[in-house]
User: Which sequence fits this backbone?
């Protein structure tokens, strides 16, 4: 006589008919979890740093190789940087916020500078504004190149990864000069000429075309990324995801195109969109955005804007003017989404709030991983382009 | 976009829902009664004239740090919780402000409306000891 089995399914999963039959033949009531059911296993992924243990982790449940449930563990977030900034002078705060992203600190530094300038009611001259846009677009190219390279190396496509990395090599010097805000004493002495950069940008565009042509013939890459880590536009918006997560669903949301008085971009790079909302869409979108940034930079150089690339420098007197406003919200279109710095100022104290896209992406990790295979995790994590420092700000 | 977002919302949801509204370069700021939080945010997200689908962030700041207008004295509240919302398609943003005192009751969670609210509410709960509803309760 077969015993009726109560199976408590607390997680969403798909059980094959064979597995159902196997369950019916067991004589005791069981719960479908890893303690009793050998096909379901648990695993925990967590970042590891030598001197900075973090409690952020990702718990996953697997049915064979398939991820059937994922849960992002917040752990304890220190909010340390927001507390640190309030005791610093504006100049020191701009230097300190660079720790959020060592590879491209310019995004956070310029957002913070913009916020301080809003407090002062200061508006930028066109040339100054353009210089900042140039720095942001070079940093955006560098970020997207790094993410694409990591994804291709993960898929062991070394030749294509090398081709992608060549874009960075060609533009290495302007990227290095514009990647962060400098102190007036430590600024690099190089200022690059129009001809050098123009040639680099043209070569970069040719390389992007070559990579796009090569991608069309690589079915293996398409199979590895298509319909993986998919997130639709309204789900992304609800989760607070912006930037490429929305534009990969044909949304035209882009802060660079927003008609706001605080927008740095007088003219913005072409707005690129893709459809699909999956990893493949975001991969292609990154390439399109690299091309758009290259074209934008070429246009800026060719127009009457700036004739040379110079580093952005801030001196120790920055932000010491009288502050007529009590709060400011500065936003920058980061490579992974909106970066926002809010400053609330009252008499001698200031409250800083930093919005990093990585925080929202980390929260959304389970959505990216449900129904994926275990082997998809490294590629998915590489494709998101986030760093733990940005998550635990 | 709106001459008065307060009038617009009060006309749809009832008088007294929006206590105060301010408009400036940074968008619309509306202070609402805590009891109407879920209703207002549901309306802001789903109304076809508003469509505030993006949860930008939820932040908590001491009341003394936030003074929209110089001639308005701060109310008797310890904390302000700001829900910053944006639209996917319409070029505007709204900040919904809750004023919380030590005697305020549990705040409704909006994680059923905006999935990204879960961690943000937990952050505020841990750092400011503000009670939020558990997300399973609604």
Assistant:
């Amino acid at each position: 006589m077969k015993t009726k089995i109560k199976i408590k399914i607390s997680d969403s999963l798909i059980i094959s008919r064979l597995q159902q039959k196997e369950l019916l033949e067991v004589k005791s009531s069981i719960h479908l979890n890893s303690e009793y059911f050998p096909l379901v296993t648990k695993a925990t992924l967590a970042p590891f740093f030598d001197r900075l243990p973090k409690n952020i982790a990702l718990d996953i449940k697997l049915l064979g190789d398939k991820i059937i449930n994922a849960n992002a563990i917040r752990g304890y977030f220190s909010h340390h940087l927001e507390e640190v900034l309030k005791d610093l002078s504006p100049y020191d705060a701009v230097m300190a916020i660079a720790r959020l992203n060592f590879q491209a600190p310019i995004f956070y530094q310029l957002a913070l500078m913009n916020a301080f300038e809003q407090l002062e009611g200061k508006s930028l001259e066109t040339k100054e504004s353009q210089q900042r846009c140039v720095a942001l677009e070079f940093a955006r190219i560098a970020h997207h190149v790094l993410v694409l390279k990591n994804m291709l190396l993960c898929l062991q496509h070394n030749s294509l990864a090398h081709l992608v990395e060549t874009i960075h090599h060609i533009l290495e010097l302007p990227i290095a000069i514009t990647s962060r805000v400098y102190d007036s004493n430590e600024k690099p002495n190089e200022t690059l000429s129009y001809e050098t950069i123009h040639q680099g940008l043209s070569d970069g565009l040719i390389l992007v075309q070559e990579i796009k042509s090569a991608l069309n013939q690589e079915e293996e890459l398409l199979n590895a990324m298509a319909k993986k880590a998919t997130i639709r536009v309204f789900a992304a918006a609800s989760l607070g995801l912006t930037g490429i997560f929305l534009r990969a669903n044909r949304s035209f949301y882009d802060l660079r195109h927003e008609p706001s008085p605080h927008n740095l971009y007088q003219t913005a790079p072409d707005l690129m969109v893709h459809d699909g909302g999956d990893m493949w869409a975001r991969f292609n979108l990154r390439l399109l955005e690299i091309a758009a940034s290259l074209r934008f930079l070429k246009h800026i150089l060719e127009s009457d804007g700036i004739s040379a690339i110079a580093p952005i420098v801030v001196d120790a007197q920055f932000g010491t003017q009288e502050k007529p406003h009590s709060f400011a919200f500065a936003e920058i279109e980061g490579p992974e989404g909106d970066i926002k710095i809010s400053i609330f100022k009252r008499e001698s104290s200031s409250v800083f709030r930093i919005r990093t896209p990585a925080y929202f992406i980390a929260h959304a990790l389970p959505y990216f991983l449900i129904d994926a295979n275990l082997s998809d995790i490294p590629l998915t994590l590489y494709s998101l382009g986030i760093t733990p420092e940005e998550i635990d700000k | 976009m709106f001459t008065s977002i307060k009038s617009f919302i009060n006309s749809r949801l009832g008088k007294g829902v929006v206590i105060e509204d301010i408009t400036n370069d940074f968008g619309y700021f509306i202070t609402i009664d805590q009891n109407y939080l879920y209703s207002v945010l549901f309306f802001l997200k789903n109304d076809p004239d508003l469509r505030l689908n993006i949860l930008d962030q939820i932040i908590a700041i001491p009341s003394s740090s936030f003074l929209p207008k110089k001639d308005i004295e701060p109310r008797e509240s310890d904390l302000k919780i700001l829900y910053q919302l944006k639209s996917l398609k319409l070029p505007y943003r709204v900040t919904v402000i809750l004023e919380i005192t030590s005697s305020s009751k549990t705040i409704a969670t909006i994680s059923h409306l905006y999935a990204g609210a879960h961690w943000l509410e937990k952050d505020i709960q841990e750092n400011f000891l503000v009670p939020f509803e558990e997300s399973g309760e609604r």
